[in-house]
Amino acid sequence: MSAATTVRAFWEAIDRRDWDALGRLLADDVVYEVPQTRERVRGRAGVVRFNAEYPGEWHLTVTTLVAEADRAATTIGFASPGLPDQTGIAFFTLDDDGRIARIEDWWPEPYEPPADRAHLVERW
Amino acid sequence: MSAATTVRAFWEAIDRRDWDALGRLLADDVVYEVPQTRERVRGRAGVVRFNAEYPGEWHLTVTTLVAEADRAATTIGFASPGLPDQTGIAFFTLDDDGRIARIEDWWPEPYEPPADRAHLVERW
User: So what's the ipTM on this one?
Assistant: First the structure.
């Protein structure tokens, strides 16, 4: 499978809560990192569990996917009842067997823009 | 130029404050958006000015670049004296002339991880 296909299957498996399918896409020694919190999970079982235990009746949709042969970047829309919709951004590296070896996961939050550039922008 | 080459040249032009070079990489009607602040800048002159007026003696380094033919995603390390180092994430779409037509720019901030997953992760 191409990185694009594998990464799309990764998000589909998570959205379906298909933890066996998710596990088959991951390298044994996959590393998952959240740089904003300095959290790291090592290994297939840990990464599957991290996703399986994520609380809420959430669903996700892939909104952007950029892929090379063995790397990809995605944005997802993440919706969970009672919570504001969020955008997640992830970068993936695949190993020589086409399994996901590294995931870097980002969750940007809304913030107030600096007032000193208000003359340069429009808002929506 | 490929999207990878164009996007690398985009960041190099910004880091060098070479606003003429930056302008040559942008479509006339380029759109720059910061979804976290709901800010939008339309047009080459506006996008150049937005970057030219960004305050500080900052420098940036491209840390990840994933590119297809006409799309790319990057992470940059952004360092400005007196401020914490930041990571910027951007997604680019190029037009048929190979110019940058759309930029989506994200600036994730550190946050405290939920306590209920502390048993699933290591910290760094």
Answer: 0.96
Q: Which residue shows structure tokens 């033919």?
A: B69
Distance CA A12, CA A61 (A): 8
Q: What are the distances in angstroms from CA A3 to CA A33, A90, B70, B73?
A: 19, 13, 17, 15
Q: Which of A38, A106, A120 sits opposite B89 (nearest CB)?
A: A106
What residue ranges define each of the domains in chain B, with the CATH number in brackets? 3-109 (3.10.450.50)
pLDDT tens for the 124 residues of chain B, in order: 899 999 999 999 999 999 999 999 999 999 999 999 999 999 999 999 999 999 999 999 999 999 999 999 999 999 999 999 999 999 999 999 999 999 999 999 999 999 999 999 999 9
| Contact check, Cβ <8 Å, A122/B72 | no
B22 touching chain A per CB within 8 A: no
pTM above 0.90, yes or no: yes
Strand bridging mode B86-94 / B71-79: antiparallel
In the chain, the amino acid numbered B120 is L
